[in-house]
Design a protein that fits this description.
Layout lengths: L16 H4 L6 H23 L6 H18 L2 H5 L4 H21 L2 H8 L10 H9 L2 H6 L2 H16 L3 H6 L2 H23 L10 H24 L19 H15 L2 H32 L2 H17 L1
Helix pairs in contact: 2-3, 2-6, 3-5, 5-11, 5-13, 9-11, 9-12, 11-12, 12-13, 12-14
């Protein structure tokens, strides 16, 4: 199946889930997914061999994130997504909002920092380069809410409501670049909000929730705009192949509904993850306080009791 132009998928039969999930390899994403799994697996094995533990939940989350990308890009969903707005919107929403969340919960940067061996004195290896990147001004800028939130919004309105989308869909390289962009935007948006990995920005939990909800309404508005449109708005999907048996406007309305729904589901998932992280952080803080109290005989409590006693003495 050729992906040039609008995919040149004129022979596609009417869409069904079974047909959409059939294998149809995109070499770029297949190699990228296999490489990601191999590198992550190498890191876990390296930690295990030296006797360190790595949470199984993180591994499961990362693998699920990679598989979600493969599901969107290495099946016939990718073929149908070239000619059906609704299927393309599923690809966009999963790759920009579901895959990044799963990948980030897998903590790949933390794994790399623990697994990569430090270079010798005065030398720079992969671990040192990664640390330099984490502390770079560039990363501070692209993960700052003042950058990520507008980028998140522009990736919808600036893409679909301008000729840029049609230009990108007109070539294989453009289509791949667009999907990589969706993934990257999702990663930099969600990383400061709910990522486990260290990063340049780590605001308090309340601020993270505000950042999350600052971007989500624009997804809903975008979906509603597509649902309420009275004519097809994107040139690429104006004339779907007759073999699909679909109406362009109805398909666009379905795409709008998908965009609207996806503004809600990931928000709930991220909110639950944030609340869990907040609770776990409070528990760790409480345990640290208890250990400190055990070491010093709870000097703070003793000092407070002495203060109360002095007040009572003065009052007497």
């Amino acid at each position: 199946m050729d992906h040039s132009g609008h995919g040149m998928t004129m022979d596609l039969p009417p869409f069904t889930l079974g047909r959409g999930l059939a294998w149809s390899t995109d070499p770029f994403f297949l190699i990228a997914c296999l490489l990601g799994l191999a590198l992550y697996g190498w890191g876990v094995v390296r930690l295990t061999r030296r006797g360190d533990k790595w949470p199984i939940g993180r591994s499961v989350s990362f693998v699920a994130g990679v598989l979600s990308i493969a599901l969107m890009m290495c099946t016939k969903l990718n073929d149908y997504g070239m000619v059906m707005f609704s299927v393309h919107m599923v690809q966009h929403m999963v790759i920009s909002m579901v895959s990044p969340i799963l990948l980030l919960l897998g903590a790949p940067i933390t794994l790399a920092l623990r697994a990569l061996p430090p270079a010798g004195r005065g030398r720079k290896g992969p671990r040192e380069v990664l640390l330099m990147l984490l502390h770079s001004r560039y990363l501070r800028i692209i993960t700052h809410p003042a950058f990520t939130i507008p980028l998140f919004i522009a990736s919808l309105y600036g893409l679909y409501f301008t000729p840029l989308f049609d230009a990108l869909m007109g070539s294989r390289a453009g289509h791949i670049g667009m999907m990589v962009h969706f993934l990257a935007v999702g990663v930099v948006f969600f990383w400061p909000i709910m990522g486990v990995d260290p990063g340049p920005h780590r605001p308090g939990y309340l601020m993270r929730m505000l950042e999350l909800f600052a971007g989500m309404p624009f997804h809903a508005f975008f979906g509603i705009a597509l649902m309420m449109a009275s004519s097809p708005m994107v040139e690429t999907f104006k004339n779907p192949p007759a073999s699909l048996g679909i109406d362009a406007l109805s398909d666009q309305n379905a795409a709008g509904g998908i965009a609207w729904a996806f503004s809600e589901v990931p928000s709930v998932l991220v909110l639950l993850a944030l609340l869990f992280q907040w609770y776990a952080s409070d528990q760790r803080q409480a345990r640290r306080s208890d250990r400190a109290a055990d070491r010093d005989g709870d000097k703070e409590l003793a000092a407070y009791n002495a203060y109360l006693t002095s007040l009572n003495t003065r009052g007497g």
